[in-house]
Amino acid sequence: MKLNTLSEKKLLDRAFLLGVIGISLCVIPLVAINLNITLYTGWINGLGIACQLVAMSLAVLVIRKRKISKETQQKAKQMTMVLAVSLLFFFLI
C-alpha cells in the first residue's frame, strides 16, 4: 500500500487518529508520576512520541500533495501546528 495513492481525507483521518493516540500515550506517564504510581513508563512515552511523529509526517504529506482543496490544506496545516506544539511540550517535560 502506497501512501501517495490514498485520498487526502483518509490520510488526514489516520494522522488525526495517530496524533490522538500519541498524545494520550504521552499523558499516561505524567499521570503516573502525579499519582505516585511506580511504573517504568519510559517506553510508553517513546511510543507516544513516535505516533505523533508519524502523524505529523502524514499531515505534511497531505500539505505537499498537488491539486487539493484549500480547506483540506488548511486542516493539514492546523494539524501540523498542533502536533508540533505537543511534540515540543512532551520533549521539554
In a nutshell, what does this entry contain?
With 93 residues, this protein is an all-alpha fold.
Write the layout of secondary structure elements.
Elements: H1 8-34, H2 42-64, H3 70-92
Helix pairs in contact: 1-2, 1-3, 2-3
Structure, explained:
The structure is a single chain. The longest helix is centred in the first third of the chain and has 27 residues, at 8-34. The protein is mainly alpha-helical and 93 residues long. The termini are far apart. The mean pLDDT is 92. Helices cover 78% and strands 0% of the residues. The chain has one domain. The chain has 3 helices and no strands. α1 packs antiparallel against α2. 24% of the residues are buried. The protein has helices spanning 8-34, 42-64, 70-92. The chain is elongated, with a radius of gyration of 15 Å.
Tags for this model:
single chain; 93 residues; mainly alpha; 3 helices
* CA-CA gap between termini: 36 Å
Which value, in Å, is the CA radius of gyration? 15 Å
Helical residue percent band? over 70%
- DSSP helical segment count: 3
Q: Please state the average pLDDT score.
A: 92
Would you identify the regions where 5 or more consecutive residues have pLDDT less than 50?
none
User: Largest beta sheet, briefly?
Assistant: none
SSE topology string: HHH
Instruction: Please report the total strand number as a whole number.
Output: 0
* Shape, principal axes of CA atoms: elongated
- SS-based structural class? mainly alpha
How many distinct domains?
Answer: 1
Beta-strand fraction estimate? under 5%
